[in-house]
C-alpha cells in the first residue's frame, strides 16, 4: 500500500485534470439550448465562437461550475453492455463500485462523499431516482451504445433539474440522435462466466415527406455471477423518432425505453472473512445459498418527449414530457407455521394448509418479496429569451408526479426451490387467508408531487472575457403517505386482521408471537394516512474570467435540498425530519489548448440536517436520526494531454476531507438522552484519495487503451473503527478496426476488466457501530466484442 501511494503521489502533477471541453453536457432540452454555443451539438443548434474540443472522447468545460463530461468515443472503449455509471468512474469526485465486471448486477455511486440517494440521475432531462427513497439502480440504465455523452455536476444542479434530492450533485446522460442515412449495427459479445450479449440497431435514415429519422434497438444479455448462485438474464428495447422543424434547431422527438432484468443477489462478506482469504470461492457459496432467497427482478420503462420551438427571433420554448413505469423487488423467504396467528387473523380457522397435505401441522418456506410499483408523470419546460447578443434570460417550470405502491404479497416456491412467479402473489398465486385477505409483508401507498419554478440569467461582459450566471430554483414537494398495515419501524410491518392489545395506553399495540413479528413484546403503530410538505428557495451563481489565452478561472455557489424519503417517514414514531440542505462553493482554474485540456478546483460543502437510519437498542427500533452538520471539502482535478499524434494521456485526482460535527442521538434511557460518539469522525464510504488515469494509443489498425483507478481506505461504520482496504485496478481494451467490412465503424474489441486480478472490496453496506458487509470486487474478466456496421 505504501509503494502504491508513493507511485500516485509522484504522478499527481500529471493527473491535475481529466476530461474537460467546451460543449454543453446539460440534461434537458432547455439546458442544452442555453449552454451550447457556435455549432450544432446533439439535438440543438448552438451559437458561439468556438467549437468543442476533446481528448480521448472527453470534452472541455466552459460552464462556471465544476463539471466533467465523457462522450460516446470514450464510452465505446468500455465493456459492451457496461452501465454508464461505471464509465464515469474515472471522473474526479466520482467513485462507482460495480457488483460485477459486466454492469448488469447493480452497484453503488458516491460523488464527493455523497451517496447515490443524494445524487440526481437523469436521462434526457427526466429523473431516474426512485420516487420514494431516491435510490439509483445502475443495472437498469440505457444500453451504452445509445448514449451520446454523460456528464457529472459536482455538488450542483442545473437550474431546471427536476429533483427533490440533489445535495451531492447530478449525473446526466443524453441519448444519441438518429442518423440521416440508413444503417444497421449488429454486435455480439462473449466473455467469461458464460457471458453472452447481442446488441442490434437499425437507423432508418431520412424517410417520408419531412425527412423524419428514427432508430430502433434491442439487446439481450445473460451470464453467471462470479461468486454465489445464479446470474443475470437481461433484455432491453429502445427506440427514438426525431423530426427536425426547419433548419434553426427546432425539433420534436419521442424516445421509448424498456428494460427487463432477472438476476439473483450476490453474496456479501465481512471484512474478517475477506482478510482470511477464500472469499472468491464460488463453489462454497453455491452449496449454501438458495436461488429462491435471492431473486431480484425488475421491469422498467419510460417514454420521453423532447421539443424546441422558436417563437420569435429572440424567444424559444422547450417542452419535455415523460412517463415512467417500475415494477421491481428484492426477494427473500419466510418460514411460516401453518397455524401461525397471522395466517388465522380474526377468523375461527385452525390454520392454513400451505403445502396441501391436509393438515395444519407443518412449517413451510414461502417466497416473501418487497415489491415496488411506480407510475410517474413529468414535464420540464422553459421559456428562453435572448434579450441581447450577450444577455439571456430563462424561466423554467418542472412538474413530477409519482404513484409509489409498496407491497409484499407472499407467494409459493416450487419443488426446485424457485419462486412460482418472479413477482410472487402480486402476479402469481397468492397465499389466501381464511379472513378473506392475503398474506402480505407490507402494504403502503404514497404519492410524490414536485412543482418547481426556476429562473436564470446568463451574460457576457468585457468582450466575452467574463461570463456570469445567476439563477434560482424553488421546489415545492408534497408527499401523501398511506400505511395499511401495523408498523413497527420503516423496515418492519405486520399485516393482519388480528386485534392488538394496547396494554399501557400509549397507542401502540402488541400481537401474539408469530413467524413475522417474532416476540410478542413488539409494539406496533396502527395503520394511518398523513401528508408532508417541503419547500425551499435555492439560489446559485457562477462567474468565469478568461484572463489569458487558453486560461480561465471560475467560481460558483449553489444551495442544495433533499426532502425526506418515504423510509424516513413511515416509522412508528413520527420524527418529522427536516430536509437536508447544502451550501456548496467551488473555485477552479482551467487551461485549454490544442494538446492540453486541464482543470483543478478547490471546493467546500456545508451539509446540514444529515439524516441516517440507526438501530435504537433501548427501544429495539430502526429510527430516523438527524446527525446535524457535516463539512466536506477538498480538491479535485483532471487533465487530457496529447503529446504526439495517436497518443493521449488522461488523468484525474480527488482529495476529500469530511468531518461529522455532532454525536448521533441514540434514544432516551431513564429520561436522559443517549448519544453515540461520532463527532469529529469521517463519513462512511468516503476515501480521502482517489486517482484515475488512462493511456490510449493508435498504431495501424489497432487502438490500445489501458486505464486504472485507485481508491483509498474507507471507513465502514459511523464510529470509524472498521476500515476497508485501499485498492488499485486496471482495465485493458484492444480494438482491431475492420475498415473493409460493411460501411465503416466495424471492429473486433477485447476488454479485460481488473487486468491484474486485484482482490478488493467494493460496495459497503455500512453500519453504525458494528461490522459492515461488503460486495466483492469483480476478479479479472475477459470478453470480446464484434461490431459489424452496415
From TrEMBL:
Matching entries from SUPFAM superfamilies are given as: Porins
Q: Where is this region: Disordered?
A: 330-350
- State the annotated membrane topology for this chain: Multi-pass membrane protein
State the span of motif (TonB C-terminal box): 773-790
- Stored Gene3D superfamilies: TonB-dependent receptor, beta-barrel domain, TonB-dependent receptor, plug domain
Report the InterPro entries cross-referenced here: Beta-barrel_TonB (IPR000531), Beta-barrel_TonB_sf (IPR036942), Plug_dom (IPR012910), Plug_dom_sf (IPR037066), TonB-dep_rcpt-like (IPR039426), TonB_rcpt_CS (IPR010917)
Q: Which PANTHER family match?
A: CATECHOLATE SIDEROPHORE RECEPTOR FIU, FERRICHROME IRON RECEPTOR-RELATED
Q: What is this protein called?
A: TonB-dependent receptor
Q: What is the lineage of its organism?
A: Bacteria, Pseudomonadati, Pseudomonadota, Alphaproteobacteria, Caulobacterales
Amino acid at each position: 500500500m505504501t509503494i502504491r501511494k508513493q507511485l500516485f503521489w509522484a504522478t499527481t502533477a500529471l493527473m491535475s485534470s481529466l476530461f474537460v471541453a467546451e460543449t454543453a453536457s446539460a440534461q434537458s432540452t432547455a439546458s442544452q439550448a442555453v449552454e451550447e454555443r457556435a455549432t450544432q451539438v446533439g439535438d440543438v443548434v448552438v451559437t458561439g465562437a468556438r467549437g468543442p474540443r476533446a481528448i480521448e472522447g472527453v470534452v472541455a468545460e466552459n460552464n462556471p461550475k465544476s463539471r466533467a463530461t465523457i462522450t460516446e468515443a470514450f464510452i465505446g472503449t468500455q465493456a459492451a453492455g457496461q452501465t454508464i455509471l461505471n464509465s464515469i468512474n474515472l471522473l474526479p469526485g466520482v467513485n462507482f463500485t460495480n457488483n460485477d465486471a459486466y454492469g448488469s448486477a447493480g452497484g453503488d455511486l458516491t460523488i464527493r462523499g455523497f451517496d447515490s440517494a443524494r445524487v440526481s440521475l437523469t436521462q434526457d432531462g427526466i429523473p431516474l431516482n426512485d420516487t420514494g427513497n431516491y435510490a439509483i439502480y445502475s443495472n437498469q440504465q440505457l444500453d451504452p451504445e445509445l448514449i451520446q455523452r454523460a456528464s457529472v455536476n459536482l455538488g450542483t444542479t442545473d437550474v431546471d433539474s427536476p429533483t427533490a434530492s440533489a445535495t451531492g450533485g447530478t449525473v446526466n446522460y443524453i441519448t444519441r440522435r438518429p442518423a440521416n442515412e440508413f444503417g444497421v449495427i449488429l454486435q455480439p459479445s462473449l466473455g467469461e462466466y458464460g457471458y453472452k450479449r447481442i446488441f442490434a440497431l437499425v437507423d432508418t435514415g431520412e424517410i417520408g415527406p419531412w425527412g423524419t429519422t428514427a432508430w430502433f434497438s434491442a439487446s439481450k444479455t445473460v451470464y453467471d455471477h462470479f461468486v454465489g448462485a445464479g446470474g443475470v438474464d437481461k433484455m432491453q428495447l429502445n427506440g427514438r423518432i426525431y423530426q427536425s422543424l426547419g433548419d434553426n434547431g427546432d425539433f420534436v422527438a419521442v424516445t421509448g425505453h424498456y428494460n427487463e432484468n432477472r438476476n439473483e443477489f450476490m453474496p456479501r462478506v465481512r471484512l474478517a472473512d475477506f482478510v482470511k482469504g477464500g472469499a472468491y470461492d464460488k463453489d462454497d457459496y453455491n452449496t449454501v445459498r438458495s436461488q429462491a432467497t435471492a431473486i431480484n427482478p425488475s421491469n422498467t420503462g419510460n417514454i420521453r418527449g423532447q421539443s424546441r420551438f422558436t417563437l420569435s427571433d429572440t424567444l424559444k420554448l422547450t417542452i419535455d414530457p415523460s412517463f415512467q413505469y417500475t415494477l421491481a423487488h428484492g426477494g427473500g423467504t419466510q418460514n411460516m407455521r401453518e397455524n401461525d396467528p397471522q395466517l388465522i387473523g380474526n377468523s375461527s380457522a385452525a390454520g392454513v394448509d400451505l403445502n396441501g397435505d391436509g393438515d395444519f401441522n407443518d412449517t413451510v418456506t414461502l417466497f416473501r418479496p418487497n415489491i415496488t410499483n411506480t407510475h410517474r408523470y413529468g414535464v420540464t419546460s422553459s421559456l428562453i429569451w435572448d434579450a441581447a447578443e450577450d444577455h439571456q434570460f430563462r424561466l423554467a417550470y418542472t412538474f413530477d408526479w409519482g404513484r409509489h405502491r409498496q407491497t409484499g404479497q407472499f407467494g409459493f416456491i416450487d419443488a426446485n426451490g424457485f419462486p412460482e412467479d418472479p413477482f410472487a402473489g402480486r402476479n402469481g398465486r397468492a397465499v389466501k387467508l381464511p379472513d378473506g385477505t392475503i398474506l402480505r409483508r407490507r402494504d403502503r401507498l404514497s404519492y410524490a408531487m414536485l412543482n418547481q419554478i426556476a429562473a436564470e440569467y446568463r451574460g457576457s461582459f468585457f468582450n466575452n472575457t467574463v461570463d456570469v450566471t445567476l439563477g434560482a430554483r424553488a421546489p415545492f414537494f408534497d408527499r401523501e403517505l398511506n400505511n395499511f398495515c401495523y408498523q413497527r419501524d420503516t423496515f418492519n410491518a405486520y399485516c393482519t386482521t388480528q386485534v392488538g392489545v394496547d396494554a399501557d395506553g400509549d397507542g401502540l399495540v402488541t400481537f401474539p408471537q408469530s413467524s413475522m413479528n417474532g416476540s410478542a413484546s413488539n409494539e406496533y403503530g396502527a395503520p394511518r394516512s398523513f401528508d408532508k410538505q417541503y419547500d425551499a428557495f435555492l439560489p446559485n451563481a457562477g462567474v468565469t474570467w478568461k484572463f489569458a489565452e487558453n486560461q480561465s478561472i471560475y467560481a460558483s455557489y449553489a444551495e442544495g435540498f433533499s426532502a425526506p424519503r418515504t423510509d424516513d417517514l413511515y416509522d412508528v414514531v413520527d420524527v418529522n425530519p427536516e430536509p437536508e440542505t447544502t451550501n456548496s462553493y467551488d473555485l477552479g482554474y482551467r487551461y485549454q489548448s490544442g494538446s492540453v485540456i486541464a482543470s483543478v478546483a478547490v471546493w467546500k460543502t456545508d451539509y446540514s440536517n444529515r439524516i441516517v437510519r440507526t438501530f435504537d437498542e433501548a427501544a429495539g427500533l430502526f429510527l430516523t436520526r438527524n446527525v446535524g452538520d457535516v463539512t466536506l471539502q477538498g480538491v479535485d482535478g483532471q487533465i487530457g494531454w496529447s503529446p504526439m499524434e495517436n497518443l493521449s494521456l488522461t488523468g484525474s485526482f480527488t482529495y476529500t476531507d469530511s468531518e461529522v460535527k455532532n454525536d448521533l442521538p441514540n434514544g432516551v434511557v431513564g429520561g436522559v438522552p443517549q448519544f453515540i460518539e461520532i463527532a469529529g469522525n469521517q463519513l462512511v464510504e468516503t476515501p480521502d484519495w482517489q486517482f484515475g488515469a488512462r493511456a490510449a494509443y493508435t498504431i495501424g489498425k489497432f487502438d490500445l487503451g489501458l486505464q486504472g483507478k485507485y481508491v483509498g481506505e474507507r471507513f465502514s461504520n459511523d464510529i470509524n473503527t472498521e476500515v476497508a482496504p485501499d485498492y488499485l485496478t486496471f482495465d485493458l481494451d484492444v480494438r482491431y478496426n475492420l475498415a473493409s467490412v460493411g460501411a465503416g465503424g466495424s471492429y473486433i474489441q477485447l476488454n479485460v476488466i481488473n487486468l491484474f486480478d486485484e482482490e478488493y472490496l467494493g460496495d459497503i453496506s455500512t453500519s453504525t457501530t458494528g461490522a459492515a458487509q461488503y460486495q466483492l470486487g469483480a476478479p479479472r474478466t475477459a470478453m470480446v466484442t464484434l461490431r459489424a456496421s452496415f
